[in-house]
Amino acid sequence: MINHAIILIGFPKSGKTTLGKALSKQFNHSFCDTDQEILKYSYAPSIREFVKSVGIERFRKRETEVLEQLQGYHGVLSTGGGLPLAEKNRASLKKLGSVVFLDTPIQTLFHRMTVGEIPTYLDSDHLLKSFEELLAHRRPIYESLADCHSICHRCG
After folding, report:
1. In this predicted structure, what is the pLDDT of residue 1?
2. Interval 13-63: pLDDT, tens
3. Within a domain: residue 155?
4. Which string of b and e fits 12-32 if b means at least 16 CB within 10 Å?
5. Is the pLDDT of residue 98 over 50?
6. Is 22 inside a domain boundary?
7. Order of strands, sheet of 31-33, starting from the edge strand that comes earlier in the sequence
8. Where are the alpha helices (DSSP H) in 9-97?
9. Is residue 91 part of a domain?
């Protein structure tokens, strides 16, 4: 029985939701995805559309609100890739449970992020450079927050 949350953090497209669903099924516990919680009460069909309609600042504020509503949650929680960037959110995650950094290989991430629609936070004219900058900025945050980290070659 999980008596606190198991929180999956990591880069966008790292497989957090896929692994989270599998873990919750395997251990017969609830699963929650913060991005899906944000979309529950919006008219947007996707996070991309939500951000387009309200802007990145409002989106980040909504992430924090959702995280605050989840305090006391017991189960598996998948976070949006940018949720741990705010210091307040990092403190909330640590209180909520055990944090696992899902460290997917860089080549896999780059492939997933550049197939189909390019995420709005990547510069499509300088794709590799903006991807590398994203990694350089976020990796230390994920690593410092995590209680452990897992390399996942098959997630997603």
Report:
1. 56
2. 899 999 999 999 998 999 999 999 999 988 899 998 999 999 999 999 999
3. no
4. bbbbbbbbbeebbeeeeeebb
5. yes
6. yes
7. 31-33, 75-78, 5-9, 97-102, 148-150
8. 16-26, 34-40, 47-54, 56-69, 87-96
9. yes
Alpha carbon 135 to its chain's center: 14
CATH assignment at residue 97: 3.40.50.300
Domain that holds residue 68: 5-150
Helix, strand, or coil (residue 46): coil
| Spatial separation of the C-alpha atoms in residues 89 and 82, rounded to whole Å | 10
Name the helix (H) or strand (E) containing 149.
strand 148-150
3-state secondary structure of 110: helix
Identify the burial level of 66 via C-beta atoms within 10 angstroms of its C-beta, where 0-12 means exposed, 13-18 middle and 19 or more buried: buried
Asked, for residue 156, whether it belongs to a domain, the answer is no
In the Cβ-directed half-sphere of 46, how many Cα atoms lie within 13 Å?
Answer: 6
Count of structural domains within the chain: 1
Query: Which residue type does 156 have?
Result: G
Q: What is the pTM of this model?
A: 0.91
- Is pLDDT above 60 for 155? no
